[in-house]
Amino acid sequence: EEQGVGEFQVLVVEAANRIGGRAYTESTIFGAPYDHGCASLQGPRTLPHFGLAHDLGFTLHDHDGADDVLFVGDRRATLAEQGAREQAWNRIAAALNRAEGDRAAADVIPRDDPMAALVETWIGPMDFGVDFDQLSTSDWNASPRHDFDYLVKEGLGTLVARLGAELPIAFNCAVTALDWSGAGVTVETSRGSIAARACIVTVSTGVLASGAIRFTPGLPDWKAAAIADLPMGCLAKIGLRFDGARFGLLANDYLSYMVKERVPAAACFFLTFPTDHEYVVGYVGGRFGQEIVRAGPAAAIDFALHEFERMVGNDARHHFVKGHLSEWESNPLTLGAYAAARPGQSSARADLARPLGDRVFFAGEAMAQPNFALCSGAHMSGERTADEVAVTLIAPQESQ
Question: Are 376 and 41 in contact (CB under 8 A)?
Fold first, then answer.
């Protein structure tokens, strides 16, 4: 109900016992802040998180242009091999940039380069959460250059939680049904019904596709198609905590290695000791990431540790303390890392954002063009949609 012209009573309905979703920091597992999900603060200078971080004294590490340490087997790559990797990256990026229309990335890139599998693994599974035959060239070309890229020592999830600390939120309140057949909406939750003039749906496309929320009337075909064309990609994080040993590696670097000429590759690339914490973060994504998650935490941690020690030496296992696997794939509140448009279907992002009947609106990273797959993108999408809702609800009053 309105409190006045332009002022509305609002409620955030949250199925979990915390805010932030895939932005989640905790400090128990490794004895230091650890982001289970998104960890990079990227976006425009106007992003609220940036000013808040400075105002509240958060420690930001500029991660733009981070170094990338490359191994070939158990040795560091030579300068010639590093140069060959850069050339392969540039060739593949140029081919993606030249792609006409919206196609699968695998259909447009050169494959005659021994570094191709390494580059494909970085760009596809480790960035977009999908393999190259599932990667939309339009999504690639829409990705923006950000004003900044920071790691947050206290955790990005901690910053997100502070930003939303004053919001009216009903926790442990899972939505099971949404009726938009009348003038407003009725939202059925695990804690009862909520009647409102409008609502904003921010769950992931994985949750929407699962049918966990029943819509009445059912979603129109164009909306269902948009959800189906934006399946969740997989990017799982495997944290490895060590006892203080650094193995000749510096903090905040990326660590990768030559992979077999087989894509999707069985690979785990790393972020080394982010903001000087005593752990490294391994990344697995795409189809192989899904396979690793299904194998379970013990198998995933063992795989990541094996790949790490293949580079730095067997001594790594002696210094290993404990590991952790993020499991957004199996979490019923997420069912994946972030949305990746099917090749040829990148327009689904705009369709997903279209409201139903001027009372059911949609927001989130999947609709955050061009900042999709980012925490900052999800935030900006929510702000834009909230403004749209306000204008929609005020307009009938102004016409009276």
Answer: yes
Burial letters for 56-93: b for 16+ Cβ neighbours within 10 Å, e otherwise?
eebebbebeebebbbbeeeeebeeebbebbeebbebbe
pLDDT of residue 4: 41
Kindly list the distances between the CA atom of residue 329 and the CA atoms of 184, 206, 241, 333, 337, in Å, as whole numbers in the listed order.
33, 9, 22, 9, 7
Instruction: Give every CB contact of residue 148 below 8 A, 6+ residues apart in sequence.
Output: 41, 42, 43, 45, 50, 62, 64
d(CA 40, CA 57) in angstroms, rounded, equals: 17
Rounded CA-CA distance 205/372 in Å is 12
Cis-peptide, bond into residue 370, ω within 30° of zero: yes
- The β-bridge relationship of strands 192-196 and 148-152 is unpaired
Residue 55 and residue 34: Cα distance in Å, rounded?
A: 22
3-state DSSP assignment of residue 252? coil
Mark the ranges of the chain whose per-residue pLDDT is less than 50.
1-5, 400
Q: Are 232 and 337 in contact (CB under 8 A)?
A: yes
Residue 168, burial from CB neighbour count under 10 angstroms (0-12, 13-18, 19+) = exposed
pLDDT confidence of residue 354: 97
The Cα–Cα gap between 40 and 246 comes to 22
pLDDT for res 1: 38
Residue by residue, DSSP assigns 310-350 as: HHH-THHHHHEEEEEE--TTT-TTTSSSEE-PPTT-TTHHH
If phi > 0 it is left, if psi is from -120 to 50 it is alpha, else beta; for residue 129 that is: left
Phi, psi (rounded to 5 degrees) for 310: -60, -30
| DSSP output for 155-214 | -HHHHHHHHTTTS-EE-S--EEEEE-SSSSEEEEETTEEEEES-EEE---HHHHHHT-SE
pLDDT at 6: 56
Nearest residue to 185 via CA among 358, 323, 341: 358
Residue with tokens 């909520």, as numbered in its chain: 194
